[in-house]
Amino acid sequence: MALLQISEPDASPTPHQRKLAVGIDLGTTHSLVATVRHSVPEVLPDAQGRFLLPSAVRYLSAQHTKIGFEALHEQNKFPLDTLVSVKRLMGKSLEDAQQTRIPYKLDQFGQSVSIVTEHATVTPVEVSSQILRTLRERAEATLGGSIVGAVITVPAYFDDAQRQATRDAARLAGLNVLRLLNEPTAAAVAYGLDHTQEGLFAVYDLGGGTFDFSLLKLSKGLFEVVATGGDTALGGDDFDALIAQHFLDQSADKTLTETDYRHLLSASKRLRENLTDVESTSIETDLTGAFAHLSLSRAEFDIMAKALVKQTLECAMRALDDANLEPGAVQDIVLVGGATRMPLIRQAVEAFFKRAPRCTIDPDEVVALGAALQANSLVGNRAPGDDWLLLDVTPLSLGIETMGGLVETIITRNSTIPVARAQEFTTYKDGQTAIALHVLQGERDLAQDCRSLAKFELRGITPMVAGAARLKVTFQVDADGLLSVSAREEVSGVEASVTVKPSHGLTDDEISKMLTDSMSEAKNDSTMRMLREQQVDSTALIESVLAALLKDHDLLSSAERDQIDTQILLTQEVLKSDNVDLIKDQTHQLSQVTDAFAARRMDRSIRAALTGKTLDQL
Amino acid sequence: MISNDSFDLFGLPRQYKIDLAALEQKWKIISAQVHPDRFASASSAEKRVAVEWSARVNEAYRVLKDPIKRAEYLCMLAGIDMGDRQQSAMNVEFLENQMFWREALEDTRNNHQIDDLHLLQASVAEASKTYEITIGDSLDRQQWQKAATQLREWMFVQKFAQEITHALRALRDQDRHIS
C-alpha cells in the first residue's frame, strides 16, 4: 500500500520550478521525513515501504554505523553499542545527562557529553546527524534531486542549548535548516490546514521522551501560539521505566546489569504498547529467572502511570494560566506523539477538557507533515491564495544574573518571536572597568536554579563611580527560538555581543572538526563541497538582489544603483573562478552594499500593508 | 522612514483610547509582511532586517495592547519618567486602602475562603476599571502629571490583582491535590 504513494519526480505538475524541501521530525524513538508533492504533504517511506525510521544508531566502529531498523533488530545482541533515545541527551552537560537515567556509559566531551560505546565514542549531536543524514538520503533518492532546505522540528519546550544542538546535528548531516519549528505548532499546521477552522486549539504532544502542550489561536491564515508548557524529560520512555521498576520491585533480584536493564526496558515498552488494544498482556523476554516471562494488566499499569499523566496535565494548566484561560475555553484538542495512544491518556485528557480529543491524523506522522508544509512554504512553493503565517513564542524566560545571584528577567516566557528587548544595568563598584554577564534561561528566581546559557564580559569601560555606568543589554530571539545577546556601555561606548553558544554545547571548532571528519568519511572532497555550497549561496544572493531591483529600483539613487550593479558584476565574475575565499569575500561585499536597500524595501512593504489591505490579500 | 513611535507604526492616532481590534488586525497585517518566514530564501541582509522589524512590531504590539503599558508609554512620550522616586510619593488614603486589602487577602488565604477571595478580586477589578477610565481621560486631555500620579497607584493595584490571582490558583491546585 505504501508503494502507491511513490511517484516519479517528473510527474509533478511544475517539475522545474519546484524546489525540493522537506520537513523532518527528529524524534526520541523514531524519526520521519515528509514533503509536499501535488499540494498535499506525505511521509516518505524507505525502500521497504516503512515510514518510521527508528532513532537508533549502532556503532560497529567510529566510521561504520547501522541505522534504524537494522540497528534496532540487533539491539538485544549489542545493547550498549545500539544508541536509542539520544534526543534526551541533546544539549546536556555530563551532569545533566547522567540524571536522565539513560543506561549508557557517558563521558565528558569538552563542555558537553559523549557516549562511550564498545567501538566508538560519540556525541549526541553526531548520533542525531546520522539519523538526519539517513532521512536526507532517503528523500533525495525518492525525490530525485538535492534538497534545498529542511524544516526540523524540536519540542516547544527545548531550551536554547537543545535547539543549538539540533541545528548543529543538521549542519553535520549536510542539511540547510530553513527553520527549527516547534513540534506542537507543526502538528497544528497539519490539522489547521486540513480543517480550515478558527478558534482556540490545544495540542497535547507526548512523544517518546518529551512532553509539550501548546495553545494556539487560529484565524484566517494565521497560527498564533499564545502559550506553551511542557517537560523535556517526560515521555513514553518514562512510562516504560515505571513498568521496569514495577518488575524490579516484585523480584528478589534487585540489581540488573546495564545490559539486562536495557532488555527489561525494551520488554516494558512492548508490554505498554500491547496494552493499547488489550486489557492484559504477557510476553516472553530474553532475560532469565523472574524476568523471563512478564505479564501486566491495564488496571495495574494505569495505577503506576497516574502520577505521570497528572504531571502532563499540570503543565497544561500552567500554560492555560499563562494565557488567562480555563480548560473550557479550548474548542479542540489534538493528540500528537505515539505515547498518546495509551487509553489512559485519552481518558485523562477528555476528563480535563470535558471534550473528546481529536486524533484523525496519525499521531506519529502529524508533526512531520506539518513541518513539510512549512518547508514547502518557506522555499516559496506555496500556491497563490494558499497563504498562511506562523507566530510562535519563547517557551522559557530569559534573563541576566544580578547581584546576590538573583535573575533579572529580560524576555518573559510566551513572548511572540522574533523578539528583542533591552534593559539597563549599572556598575556596583567605583572604578569598575569590566562587567561579567551571565545569561540564564528558566522561571526560577535564583541563578543557580536556572539553565546557564552563556557567560561573557564587557571590558574597557571608562572608570566611573559606582552606579554611573549605563550598561544596555539587548536580548534578541530569532524565529528559530535562538538567542543572541549584545551589551553596550553607553557612557564609554564599548560594545560586546555574542550569539549565545550554550555553555554545554559544542564549540565551533568541535563542529568544524566533525564536519571535516564526516566528509572524509564519505570520501567527499571537502573543498569541492565547500566551493559548491558557496557558489549556491552567492548565486542565490545575486538572484534575490536582481529580483529586488526589478521591483523596487526607484528606492535607490543612481549612485547607489551603480554601486550595487558594480558589485553584482564583480560577484558574477568571481563566481567563474573556483576560489572559495574570493567568492565569499565578494559575496559579503555585495551583501553589504544592499543592506540599506533591504531596509528601505521593508519600510515600503509595511507602508503598503498599512494602506488598508487585509491579511488574505497579502 | 517610518518613525519610532509605536502608534505611527500601526497607523493609529497617538492617544490612550484606541481600537484594540484594529490594533490586532494591523499587527497581523504587518507581521505577515515582515516575518522572517517571508524571507527564508532572501539575502542575509534582508533576513536580518526581517528579524529586527518583526521584533520591533511584536514589542510595539505588546506595549500598546496592554492598558497599563500603553499608559506608561504615553507618559514616556510626554517626557515623564515613571521610575522617578521623588515623584512617586503615594497619597495616604490610597496606602491605607492598600493595607486594608492586603490584610483581607491574608485572612482569606489563611482561612481558605475562596468565595471571599473572589469578592476581593471583583472589587479590585472594579477599582482597576475606574483607574483605566480616569487615566485614559487625563492622558487624552494631556494632563500628564495627573495621569502619572494615578498610573503609579494603578500599577500597585495591578500588582495586587496578580497576587490575588496567584492565591486563587494556589488554592485551586491544593483542592485538586486533595481530591
Verbal overview:
The complex is a heterodimer of chains A (618) and B (179). With 618 residues, chain A is of the alpha+beta class. Chain A folds into three domains: 17-235 and 304-392, Nucleotidyltransferase, domain 5; 394-520, Sandwich (Substrate Binding Domain Of DNAk, Chain A, domain 1); 523-610, Up-down Bundle (Substrate Binding Domain Of Dnak, Chain:A, Domain 2), CATH 1.20.1270.10. Chain A has 15 helices and 27 strands. In chain A, a hairpin with a 3-residue loop joins strand 20 (398-402) and strand 21. The longest helix of chain A has 27 residues, at 526-552. Chain A is globular, with a radius of gyration of 26 Å. Residues 1-16 and 613-618 of chain A have low confidence and may be disordered. The termini of chain B are far apart. In chain B, helix 2 (20-34) runs antiparallel to helix 3 (44-65), helix 4 (67-77) runs parallel beside helix 6 and helix 6 runs antiparallel to helix 7 (144-178). Chains A and B meet through helix 10, strand 19, strand 22, helix 12 and helix 15 of A and helix 2 and helix 3 of B.
Give me a quick take on this structure.
The complex is a heterodimer of chains A (618) and B (179). In chain A, 44% of the residues are buried. Chain A is built from 15 helices and 27 strands.
Instruction: Give the helix/strand class of chain B.
Output: mainly alpha
Morphology call of chain B: globular
Fraction of residues in β-strands of chain A: 15-25%
Fraction in beta strands of chain B: under 5%
Give the secondary structure arrangement, pairings included.
The complex is a heterodimer of chains A (618) and B (179).
Chain A (H helix, E strand, L loop, with lengths): L20 E5 L4 E8 L2 E4 L9 E2 L1 E4 L5 E3 L1 H5 L8 E3 L9 H5 L6 E5 L2 E5 L4 E2 L1 H20 L5 E6 L5 H13 L4 E6 H13 L3 E8 L4 E9 L2 E10 L4 H15 L7 H17 L5 E5 L8 E5 H25 L9 E5 L6 H11 L12 H13 L10 E3 L6 E5 L3 E6 L7 E7 L9 E7 L9 E8 L12 E7 L5 E7 L4 E6 L8 H14 L4 H27 L5 H18 L4 H14 L1 H16 L8
Parallel strand pairs in A: 1-11, 11-12, 13-18, 15-19
Antiparallel strand pairs in A: 1-2, 2-3, 2-4, 5-6, 5-7, 8-9, 9-10, 13-14, 14-15, 16-17, 20-21, 20-23, 22-25, 23-24, 25-26, 26-27
Chain B lengths: L5 H4 L10 H15 L9 H22 L1 H11 L14 H19 L3 H27 L3 H35 L1
Helix pairs in contact in B: 2-3, 3-4, 4-6, 4-7, 5-6, 5-7, 6-7
